Amino acid sequence: MRIAVFPGSFDPITKGHIDLVERACALFDKVIVAVGINSQKKYLYTLEQRLSWLQKVFESNDKVVVDHFEGLTVNYCKKVDAHFLLRGLRNASDFDYEKTISQLNTIIGDDLETVFLISQPAYSHISSTIVREIIKGKGDVSAFVPESISNQLNK
Ligand code: ADP
Is the pTM of this model over 0.85? Predict the structure, then answer.
């Protein structure tokens, strides 16, 4: 079984993430969307809130499993027997960052291949960072996040 782990903060999940997961479902038998917990990072939303949004977004997709983990991504991949890591590339700065991480993970991981999908043009400007800024400024994020999230935020 081809299992891919899509690790991230998903603070919050955006339409860019969703597009990536949906496209990855054509390549893998199972895609685990895994929220990585980094104790050094300050998040806008709690882990519970982020997981609950992810579960809602992917509830009708039976190839997708939502989970969370602490520590190294490579250790989590080993635990769930995944040999593929899924990451998205929006631009050259994503590439520079991801290239290093991917090379490190190849060395410290156990037979782990990172698979990159290039963002669709319609989504390449979307980042969770930008979405958080708009939310903090009380702006409208409905173009960037799934309806379940924008509806909840607009309440
Ligand atoms: P991290 O904290 O690891 O940066 P993110 O939740 O911001 O986590 O992103 C997780 C992954 O999703 C990364 O590989 C990132 O490149 C990808 N990604 C984020 N936004 C988009 C987008 N709009 N289109 C495609 N991929 C994206």
Answer: yes
